[in-house]
Amino acid sequence: MKILRLGDKYIQHVLKLVSHRDYRFSKETCVVTGTKLVRDLGKRYRFKEIICSRPSHPDLATLNFDELHVTEPRILRKIAELEEFDGLIGTLTLPARRSIKEITHPRLLLCLDYIEDLGLMGTLLRTAVSFQWQAVFFLPNCADPFSSRCIRASQGALFNIPHCKGNMEDLQKLCRRGQLTLSVPHPAGVDVSSDAYEPPKGQALLLREEYTTPWAPPREALKIKVPDPWRGHPKGTPDGEEFDFRALDVAVQGGILMHHIKHTHFAEVSRTPFLASRQGRVFWAIFLTFGLCAADDRAWTSAKSACSGCLWFPVN
């Protein structure tokens, strides 16, 4: 098998996918770096290409892909944007972006604006998936969540959760339609950990980096405090100072809020990762067509029959 060099057309194509947002979207393709992440996503997705330093890599046997390319470790490091790297790299079709109208009746919506650091963006997305939030809304002033560095930091989160993009007016319309309360962290806000706090029907949590441009939250937004994670701890905060969430970066603030809101006020809400995938959209159409519900065995049987031959269909 030919070992590809830096000047080869395919390697230049992959490097352009890594570095150019518009090129990624024109090709509808993203780059996934890291053996574990490639292996995890490979359980549910077929890769367009796999790139590695040797055709005998032990994980190749477990992956589905169209093409295999072999190149030098130094080129793998360049693609992965890491100083030390000799793992697997894969290219995947971008996960489907939903139209705003397709985000129907979410009760936990993470909204991101002015998140410019790829690591923070990835951490917030990974946290949203871990804590079973149901969808993500990107406002225009965010880093590209399909940068290979963000995909690595998020551990492929957007392959597991529906997402859409719009402006503030679009977000406000979605909140009104879905009966969501738009909420923003604020030091003088409502204490969501108080016994007197009554949670809304649904929550849209809007987060932004703390050192970006000045702003005023929308007038109708509910201002909420980030709960003190050391409340009730006999020793208090580790440094003995009063808890002030403004000293935390947005990923930590968001993690505390997402965990508290989900597990304290919306413990019954769950998320189905499968519905975030392209195949899941087909399944959702079948769901609507057959009027599928958990209690209706006949509808489930009809859907299974309609999907016979679809490798992605969850038969168990």
UniProtKB/TrEMBL annotation:
InterPro entries: Alpha/beta_knot_MTases, rRNA_Methyltransferase, SpoU_MeTrfase, tRNA_m1G_MTases_N
One of the Pfam families matching this protein, by short name: SpoU_methylase
Chain ranges of the tRNA/rRNA methyltransferase SpoU type domain: 108-207
UniProt keyword terms in alphabetical order: Methyltransferase, Transferase
GO molecular function: RNA binding; RNA methyltransferase activity
Cross-referenced Gene3D superfamilies: 3.40.1280.10
GO biological process, one term: RNA processing
Top-rank lineage group of the source organism: Eukaryota
Name of the protein: RNA methyltransferase-like protein 1
Gene name linked to the record: RNMTL1
